[in-house]
Amino acid sequence: MRVVIAEDNALLREGMVLLLNSAGHEVVAVASSGPEVLPALLEHRPDAAVLDVRMPPGFRDEGLRAALAARREIPGLPVLVLSQYVEETYAAELLADGAGGLGYLLKDRVGRVEEFLDALERVVAGGTALDPEVVKELMTRRRNDPVDSLTPREREVLHLMAEGRDNTTIARTLVVSERAVSKHIGNVFAKLGLPPSDSGHRRVLAVLAYLNKGESADKGGGRG
Predict the structure, then answer these.
(1) Same domain, 117 and 162
(2) Which GO annotations describe the biological process of this protein (predicted)?
(3) Residue 103 — φ and ψ, nearest 5°?
(4) CA–CA distance, 139 with 124 (Å, rounded to integer)
(5) What does the alpha-carbon distance between residue 192 and residue 149 come to, in Å, rounded to a whole number?
(6) Domain span at residue 189?
(7) How many domains does the chain have?
(8) Which long-range contacts (CB under 8 A, 24 or more apart) does 88-92 make?
(9) What is the CATH number of the domain that holds 104?
(10) N or C: which end of the chain has fewer CB within 10 A?
(11) Three-state DSSP class for 120?
């Protein structure tokens, strides 16, 4: 796979280059500041882009803006966004277009080589890869709603679904049968009032839409 990397931290950037090259992929370009990102993506039109959210010159959301702009110019461009901290707003904005081929990970996942490469491959395949910490944060902030009615096992299944895991992976992780996973997923959707969804990123986006709706409601309620 051909990859463009955008990361201002030279050590992390070069580490990702070595990691991807050693895994048999080709890094066709690197960018160290926000203004460099979109031109590199448009020139090389890679199979995937790995982008830091906050980059020079402003260290706000330059990488995210470049990712969104690139997907407008190159529809379906697989993008894996990296962030130092859990920032649910960025995850929600990235996933708002309803398309797959998107991921949002914390930077410490890069050091977990298998997890990082697995997430990248899922994104390139058109799936969704959301960091478990982001999912945990979203679920924790839901209060007094149908999430409370889920059993502990259903919560585990919901968490893994929101990360973008397929039924086979969920079954293997929880050491249950795929039939049991399908039953739990049906219960989750019924309790959350969500329509049944097919496999893949649409199911993930349905779950995230539900979780993000609660997050927006909390913010709109004037907390803090």
Answers:
(1) no
(2) phosphorelay signal transduction system; regulation of DNA-templated transcription
(3) -145, 155
(4) 26
(5) 9
(6) 144-217
(7) 2
(8) 88/134, 88/137, 88/138, 88/212, 88/215, 90/53, 90/61, 90/64, 91/130, 91/134, 91/208, 92/208, 92/212, 92/215
(9) 3.40.50.2300
(10) C
(11) helix
What whole-number distance in Å separates Cα of residue 98 and Cα of residue 76?
11
Tell me which residue of 48, 28, 202, 42 sits closest to 124, measured CA to CA: 48
Residue 222 lies in a domain: no
Q: How far apart are CA 43 and CA 7, in angstroms?
A: 18
Give the burial string for 158-167 (b: 16+ CB within 10 Å, else e). Answer: bbbbbbbbbb
Closest to 23 measured CA to CA, from 51, 53, 50? 50
Stretches where the chain sits below pLDDT 70 are: 88-92, 96-99, 138-145, 196-202, 205-206, 208-224
The per-residue pLDDT for 206 is 65
Q: What is the pTM of this model?
A: 0.71
C-alpha gyration radius of the chain: 18
Say what the alpha-carbon torsion angle 163, 169, 173, 175 is, to the nearest 10 degrees. Answer: 140
Q: Tokens for 111? A: 């050091």
Q: Is residue 223 part of a domain?
A: no
